[in-house]
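Protocol step 4 of 5: obtain the predicted structure for the target chain.
Materials: sequence only (see below). No template structures provided, no constraints applied. The aim of this step is simply to have a reference model before the mutagenesis design in step 5. Sequence pasted as it appears in the construct record:
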Amino acid sequence: MSTVHFVGGEKGGVGKSVVARLMAQYCIDRHLPFAAVDADGSHATFSRFYGDYARPVDLFRPDGPDEIMTLAMEADRRVLVDLPAQSQRALSAWLGESGVFDLAREAAVKIVFWHVIDDGKDSIATLARLLERHGKDATICVVKNLGRGTDFAPFEASPVRNTARELGVHVVELPELTASAMQKIDRLDASFWAAIQNPAFSPETLTRMDRQRVKVWLQSWYDRLALLGDVF
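Step 4 output (structure tokens):
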């Protein structure tokens, strides 16, 4: 069974692309077949860090996202889609006008939305819109990015959180990686595997402690994914 994973959050800077990269690395480490779709043309995250698996899709063309479903239906795989900010309207239009949920059911393709949030009020509002549009048609996972905030009490106390519970929405925390380590990895245009393993990176670019922090961080995320069962 194929699964399409839409990784978004509507807001810029909440860590959507980091979550998408983590999913790609998980698939590589676990030898799971996957395709990586760059729907965020301004950053092209997958092309930059996982170029061997990446392909671009223009989400804002009427038939641009069709390739996403083609990838899911032509082989059993995970299709990871890195969404740009402010893309939910275009994505929802495609899903609705093309009858994507009906097609997915016919083709036994599962659709999962990963909604990455920081601890700001806007993240709650964008989640509310996602739940209203697709909460009954798709599996939804909220990723609380601890690298983009630590006080998620307003989210936990919000009516949106209650709605999420009623819909069976999954909530998972993404631990924080030290900013200096992430900045070094990004400057090197390195995959997370390369950050840990590549001997070409000198101690001046990534120290032994940097590598160890990335290794622990990756495993912590993998452990959290495992707790979600067959969602991923």
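Step 4 remarks: The domain at 2-178 is CATH 3.40.50.300 (Rossmann fold). The chain has a mean pLDDT of 93.
Proceed to step 5.
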